[in-house]
């Protein structure tokens, strides 16, 4: 096992290998590849786009939303510089600070918390987003002189039928998504950013996740959600270059030049009433999703990646895929061609005290414009999806995730605050 304090000589080779594998897979591989061992290497931090969006989805998540508690713009910008430097180090398997967990003065607190000592990078990616409230507070006050840079696409999400949102675990000024193939590596990253930000930010809420619920590359198999169904079969993937250009990456002409090359993230904590679901017949479960549970094929088809036939009728003359089926309501054909790049995670956070698991999906989806993508899709689902009988949306967030950091002279938020 490689120490996090040692530079990985194969770091550059590791990602080139991943990229090459993805390119070959797109051209030659079966749509359902064999499961690959977890990637323990380092994902490059610098680049045109932030890592952690089209990066092949890792197995673990630690997501955190932060409130900015200072009124000093200079302190916030300096923290973002420090966060960027720490993120660049941690994603390469190094300590958060230059002195490390044990290299400083014994009389002073270490500049790394130390719980990831000896662990490899584990594919760690750190992705930052800015919430609407960072630009203006609830009273409309320009908090940091950036209100005129509020993107139109960062419009507050509407209330959807069935929402049971808890304000204390919704929204926030900043978010950081830490994804890795080792939960301790992801937790270590968020913990150290919170430590560095002491006095400038405080954690509003955080969410641990396991078992990715989407594939973001054709090199990955389709995973299953806690309802036992394959999830995200038709997800956008990193090999879909033209689709990503049209549906994922923001452009300067969209109205916020500082967001060019970035993307908008919607987060939703979706509680599942798994006990009720577990008492539902297999036939009904499959009708609700519009797919069979074993293979994941659209009803009436044989394979997971077969195109669904929404006009096909069963022996009773009714649509093979019901009009209220999840697959139909979420399909681009019924949402003006809208696609999402999903990279959500399962969660189980103990019990609710009434003998039921507090379990579900921490939904995360990236897109070019939520007003044209997530909002119409969710309206369709909230209005008619039979799955709503088994789920509750209890948390919500919308974030502007800027383009990637180009090098050592750049930092998170530079284009926004310059």
UniProtKB/TrEMBL annotation:
So what EC number does this one have?
1.11.1.-
Q: Does Hydrolase show up as a keyword for this record?
A: no
**Could you tell me where the Low complexity compositional bias lies?**
212-224
Tell me which residues make up the Dyp-type peroxidase C-terminal domain.
222-405
Which parts form a coiled-coil structure per UniProt?
Answer: none
Compartment annotation: Cell envelope
Where does this chain mainly localize? other
State its cofactor.
heme b
Task: Report which reactions are catalysed by this protein.
Answer: heme b + 2 H(+) = protoporphyrin IX + Fe(2+)
Q: Which EC class, in a word? A: oxidoreductase
- Cofactor binding note: Binds 1 heme b (iron(II)-protoporphyrin IX) group non-covalently per subunit.
Q: Which molecular-function annotations from GO does this UniProt entry contain?
A: ferrochelatase activity; heme binding; metal ion binding; peroxidase activity
Domain Dyp-type peroxidase N-terminal, residue spans: 50-210
Q: Which GO terms describe its biological process?
A: iron import into cell
Region described as Disordered: spans on this chain: 212-231
Signal peptide: which range, if any?
1-29
Q: Which UniProt keywords apply?
A: Heme, Iron, Lyase, Metal-binding, Oxidoreductase, Peroxidase, Signal
A GO CC term attached to the entry: cell envelope
Query: Any keyword Ribonucleoprotein?
Result: no
The protein's job, in short, is:
Involved in the recovery of exogenous heme iron. Extracts iron from heme while preserving the protoporphyrin ring intact.
Q: What PANTHER family does this protein map onto? A: DEFERROCHELATASE (PTHR30521:SF4), DEFERROCHELATASE/PEROXIDASE (PTHR30521)
Family under the similarity heading = Belongs to the DyP-type peroxidase family.
Q: What name is this protein filed under?
A: Deferrochelatase
